[in-house]
Specification:
Blueprint (H helix, E strand, L loop, with lengths): L2 H12 L26 H37 L23 H24 L4 H12 L5 H6 L7
Helix pairs in contact: 2-3, 2-4
Amino acid sequence: MRPSLLLAVLLLANGVAFAQARPPVSRPDSVATGAPAPAAPDTLAALHRLFATRRQRRNYVAGGTALVAVGGLVIGSSGARPSGSGGGGSYGIGGGAGLDGMAIGTFFTGVVGALALGGELIYYVQYSEKNERRAVAAFEAHRLPRGLRRELKPKFFR
């Protein structure tokens, strides 16, 4: 007998037959079918963990963005400026009396930082305590939105 055929026979002989050991199916009573089932406590805890994690991430991301923006503004405003009195060394408009490249760069750093911070805060508003209460109520009514169902990863069920 070939070794591969012998191995296949041994594997098939040692397999567990799941179809023969089937657990009994309990049928709900006709009176109890109209009442909604109580909410699963593990899923509720996972919802709470999801919202708490996103709120914590909001604090870190918004804080980091604010630090980078403020750091860019400080670095940009503290840089050495060319003097307006030197011949040909002035980069400003009107002989050094107007805006120079560093001031414009600092302005755009502030604008981009503010826009990024505003966008992050607008995104993370969906994870507020009020929306968490709405999500819990929707889950208890068996109408949890699809987006939240997708976000409930196994790491939140621990």
